[in-house]
Structures are given as C-alpha cells and as structure tokens.
Write a structure and sequence with these properties.
Length: 381
C-alpha cells in the first residue's frame, strides 16, 4: 500500500512517498508514476497530504477526488486530462480543522454508500490512511505551530478516525540552530507501518534527530527503496515535499526518480526527447494545478503567501526552454476478467460462461457476488 514517510518539527515538515500503484490481486504494476500527493493551502494552514490505500474512488483517482472535495470545484478535463492550471474563486475555503472533518465525513459516506456499489466491498475491505503535515497559524498570523495529522480506517471498517500528533508547541532548540547540548524534538509518521520493519523505523527515529531537510530526504528515499527491494507493492521513484515555517514561507517539491525520466515532444516532423520531472497537486485559494510532467528549470509557484519551488533537471542550452503538461491518468480498472471466476461460487461461474438456465434473481445475485468477490479496483499497496 505504498510507503508514506513524514517528519514534522519546528524547523520543517517533510513528506516523501513512492509513486507506484499496483493491482490488488497479484500486485502487478498498474501505474508506476501515479500521484499520491497534494500541497494544500487552507485558510489557516499549509500542508502536504499523502495517502495509502485504494487508488480510485468511484472511477476517479483518489488524489483528484480529495482535491474536488477540498475545493468544492470539479476538475476540468481536456482530452481526458485535468487542466494543468485552473484559476478562479473556489466555492469554499476552509480552515484546516474543518477541511479534515469534512474529508472524514466524505470518506465515511464513500465507504457506506455514496460510491457505486461495485466499489463498496473493496473500499470497506482495504486499509486507508491520509498523512498530513505542515504548518498552522493563528487567525492574525502571529503564532504558528507544526502540524501532523492522520485520517484513516482499518481493514473491514467504514469508520474513519482523525488523529493529531502532539504538537510540542514550545519546542526546545536543536542542533540545526546551533545548540547541540539540547535534544531535538520532532514527530515521525510512517504509513502503513506494515511496509516498514520495526528495526528500520527505530533507525529512522534515531537517524533523523539532527538532520537538515536534504539529509532527511535522502534517508527517507533510501528507506523507501529498501522497502521496494523487499515488497513489490512499493515503488522506486519518489516524490519529496518540504515546507519551512511561516516566517520563511518557502517550500519545495522534488521528484526523485530511480532512473532519469524523459518526456517526448512530438510534432509532424520530429520527436524530441527531453529530461522530465513531475509535480503533485498544488491547491491554493484561487488556483489549482494538476499533477504534471514539466521542465521549467528552478521555477516556483505561489500558494497564499508561500512560495513553492519546483525542482527539475536542466534542459539543453538550445531548443525547448520549458514545458508543462498535466498527466493523463489511467482509467479505473473494470471488473476482473472472466478467466478468474474459478475463485467464485458456482452460480457466478455459470453466469460468466453465459448459461441461460438461471432465474433473473439468481443471475443478479451472481453478478453482485462477482463484483464483490473479485476486487475490481486498484490498491496503492
């Protein structure tokens, strides 16, 4: 179910995730570059959100579904892709507390009946968790604190729990600020914990104590890739997001590929291959930027009063100077192939083989068992 590693302290909030989505049954790759991250600017906070669990909600990518719920705005499509950049007033701009409680309600509605029935059993059966980290400030902006939240449910449950980690409002000084004699206080979250051994988690807790953002990012990326060596449901390519405190008001997005990524620009006369990077959802008060493939040098995006730097590899000195295009997301998988119906009861096997000697009631029950018995969705393992 992927691996989301998050660290929050008075110095910075950092979240690193892999980008692999796999099929539930056999863990085959479904989308190796799936986005799982959102940078969200609320009325009184800025946070990075990463998820682990089912990758689609009612045939819509989970990250896109979350953005639509947070903004109350339908994402615009063009040629099957979200618009790379949408500008305009939002129907609602909530603070971080209301945003999380609203998401909790929406997820529970999705689990109990708001989504199409063919997704319900998979949605209920699977583990799901959002990891949320960043900064919250007072109404007048004079006080701020680091924030670390989780919103999730256990397998077999439709009830979501919203948990906030202790914020240690009055953090002691740490080694980064030049006071090595005082212990550094920070918060660490890993989701799901089953994808990281307890020994590795203990090592992270000790190894991150005095690390700067780039050093902590390297440790997180190495930890995720160690997990990828053991687990086929964890990917090698990573997305890293760091948010510095409000007085600094800067953040950064960095795509960390396992191998260099390329984009192909195709015209009638030639195809040009260029280095590429990827970005997550960027959601501000009046703008939404969809997950994109890009190359703009070291550009930046404004979210509220924060400036988010978007890192990408250098382009050749001549030719194309920059590009930006939203990603075309794979369609949600359909019902499983009839070749797999041997896993189901005899009535389902009969329906899949086209037998006509079943009553309408039995046939309808069989099709529902087929949808519930074969997990037709994708899980972000």
């Amino acid at each position: 179910m992927t691996l989301v590693l998050t660290r929050a302290s008075k110095n910075y909030a950092l979240q690193v995730t892999d980008r692999l989505v796999t099929y539930t049954q056999d863990c085959r790759p479904f989308d190796t570059l799936a986005n799982k991250n959102i940078v969200y600017c609320a009325r009184n906070a800025i946070v990075t959100i990463g998820y682990t669990g089912l990758a689609y909600r009612d045939e819509m990518p989970t990250d896109q579904w979350i953005v639509e719920k947070l903004t109350g705005k339908r994402t615009v499509y063009f040629d099957g892709k979200p618009a790379a950049w949408c500008v305009g007033p939002r129907k609602k701009w909530l603070d971080i507390g209301l945003s999380m409680r609203m998401l909790k309600t929406e997820f529970e509605n999705a689990a109990t009946g708001a989504v199409r029935w063919k997704w319900k059993s998979a949605w209920k059966a699977r583990y799901f968790e959002l990891s949320v980290a960043g900064w919250q400030w007072s109404r007048r902006g004079r006080r701020f604190r680091p924030l670390l939240l989780s919103l999730g449910k256990e397998r077999g449950s439709t009830s979501f729990e919203l948990v906030e980690q202790p914020c240690h409002r009055y953090f002691r000084d740490d080694k980064i600020t030049g006071v090595p004699q005082k212990r550094f206080v920070y918060m660490l979250q890993a989701a799901p914990t089953e994808n990281i051994p307890a020994s590795d988690l203990r090592g992270l807790r000790l190894g991150l104590e005095d690390k700067r953002p780039d050093e902590a990012e390297t440790i997180f990326v190495n930890c995720i890739r160690n997990a990828a060596e053991r687990l086929s449901v964890v990917g090698w390519a990573c997305m890293s997001i760091v948010l510095l405190p409000p007085p600094v008001a800067r953040g950064g997005v960095r795509y960390v590929p396992a191998t260099p990524s390329e984009a192909s620009l195709v015209s009638e006369t030639e195809t040009i291959r260029l280095p590429a990077a990827f970005s997550p959802w960027l959601v501000g008060r009046n703008e939404i930027r969809a997950p994109s493939i890009m190359e703009r040098g070291n550009s930046s995006v404004r979210l509220g009063f924060y400036e988010i730097a978007m890192e990408s590899p250098d382009l050749p000195e001549r030719g194309v100077r920059s590009y930006w295009s939203s990603l075309e997301r794979p369609a949600a998988p359909r019902l499983a192939s009839f070749a797999s119906v041997y896993l189901l009861p005899d009535c389902c096997r009969a329906v899949s083989q086209g037998e006509e000697d079943l009553s309408a009631g039995v046939r309808e029950s069989a099709w529902r068992a087929l949808a519930d018995g074969i997990d037709c969705s994708v899980i972000d393992r």
